DNA sequence: AAAATTACCATACAGATGTATGGTAATGTT
DNA sequence: AACATTACCATACATCTGTATGGTAATTTT
């Protein structure tokens, strides 16, 4: 039962996870202090004590960079979820990460990649099913035929990307849905990133 | 262009990856030395120098636990591949890890989990397709309905597991293949582990 | 109003850590 | 036969690292 974190504690925990994801190593107290502008390591020390008491991390006495992130005992790490995606009928997407939900830590990703849980069966012809997670890299330029996550009217959709001159076509796999055609410079839509992978957990469901 | 590693260097690199995967932190020189029975850290030091010169890792001067594993720049880490699996018609499986291939580091796994690349379409009814990777945890006890990897006559297959009394039934998803029924104590087969996830890379193929 | 919590600073210290340097032995290569 | 590579050991050292202890100030809870 994860207790609630204070603002500072959550930021430090996020930093730990981020560093471990992007650099592969957990920062030292000194590095955390530097990151947050603390003049002293003992400030960090006390935040870490709080995080440990609340069960989010485990510290190993006298070992450097030995902070273990406890959320991973279940093979999960918290990652920002931007919302759920439907391929056909857009669902609501939240403007910012609404919550830090436990999601599978899938593949090695750039620190700012994110996961989206797919809802609905409109991607089934692309072998992506309801409940699957798509891994989205926001730093790639989409190529024709790639699956992208697009924000349309504040809702996120997964579509196949095609650029034709000044127009961008977003195709569904399911032929029941007509392609969406928008101007490249349109402000009503935005490509959030390219789908680089799909992950499906089999641990619970029998399918 | 990764240069070849010596036996010891490869073992140390594997250890680095394993520790990072299972503990979340890279070991110190002292820990590596202890693991391999070295009486001195400088032995490790020199192996790490070799690994760095060959481009497999990057060391950050004077920072503890700061070894970065360079293979991950491409979001890949080497993992032993035991072979390819077919769900219907068993393929050859290699008795030991035949190679250390660059495979996506998928999900957080126990250090001894492994990946198998699925071949053939006999699992398609379970939404697992040719080219997908199944993530296998060898330390779980299969429950009825779970997908398991079984070794039958030296070949690996992915099947759905059902225990009925003293018999174990291995069902294919594809009804064209008849279930395999074996005695629980049979020596001709062995359950290698439980499929805990499926990963599919989307980066290259347009599908 | 008193007490607890949160957020920060400073100083001190033992021991862990990476690194430098020099050496031995076995094996393979030219 | 000379050289290079691999694999290991030992000693030494600056400094990084986690930890202990004590203190101030602001905010929240009781």
Number of separate helices of chain A: 3
This entry's quaternary arrangement is homodimer
The major sheet of chain A is characterized as: 10 strands, mixed
- For the termini of chain A, the CA-CA separation is 28 Å
Secondary-structure-derived class of chain A = alpha+beta
**Residue runs with pLDDT of under 50 for 5 or more positions of chain A:** 72-112
Strand tally of chain A, please?
A: 12
Label the overall shape of chain A. elongated
> In percent, how helical is the residue content of chain A?
10-25%
What is the succession of H and E elements of chain A?
A: HHHEEEEEEEEEEEE
Strand content of chain A is 25-35%
Summed over residues and divided by their number, the pLDDT of chain A gives a mean of: 67
Radius of gyration of chain A: 20 Å
**Pair with the most extensive interface?**
A-B, 41 and 40 residues
Would you mind describing this structure in some detail?
- The structure is a homodimer of 207-residue chains.
- By secondary structure, chain A is an alpha+beta fold.
- Helices cover 18% and strands 35% of the residues of chain A.
- The first copy, chain A, has 3 helices and 12 strands.
- In chain A, strand 10 and strand 11 form a beta hairpin.
- In chain A, helix 1 crosses helix 3 and helix 2 packs across helix 3.
- The longest helix of chain A has 16 residues.
- The two termini of chain A are 28 Å apart.
- Strand 12 of chain A pairs antiparallel with strand 12 of chain B, so a sheet runs across the interface.
- Chain A binds a DNA duplex (30 and 30 nucleotides) through helix 3.
């Amino acid at each position: 039962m994860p207790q609630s974190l204070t603002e500072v504690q959550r930021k430090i925990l996020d930093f730990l996870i981020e560093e471990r994801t992007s650099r592969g190593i957990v920062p030292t107290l000194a590095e955390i202090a530097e990151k947050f502008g603390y003049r002293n390591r003992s400030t960090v020390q006390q935040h870490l004590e709080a995080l440990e008491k609340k069960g989010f991390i485990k510290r190993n006495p006298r070992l450097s960079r030995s902070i273990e992130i406890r959320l991973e005992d279940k093979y999960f790490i918290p990652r920002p979820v931007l919302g759920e995606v439907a391929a056909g009928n857009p669902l609501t997407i939240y403007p910012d990460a609404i919550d830090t939900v436990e999601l599978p830590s899938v593949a090695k990703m750039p620190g700012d990649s994110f996961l989206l849980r797919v809802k609905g069966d409109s991607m089934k012809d692309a072998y992506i099913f309801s409940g699957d997670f798509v891994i989205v890299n926001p730093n790639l330029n989409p190529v024709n035929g790639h699956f992208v996550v697009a924000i349309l009217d504040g809702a996120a959709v997964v579509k196949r990307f095609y650029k034709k001159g000044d127009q961008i076509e977003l195709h569904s796999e399911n032929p029941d849905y007509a392609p969406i055609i928008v101007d490249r410079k349109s402000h009503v839509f935005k490509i959030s990133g390219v789908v680089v992978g799909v992950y499906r957990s089999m641990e619970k469901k029998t399918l």
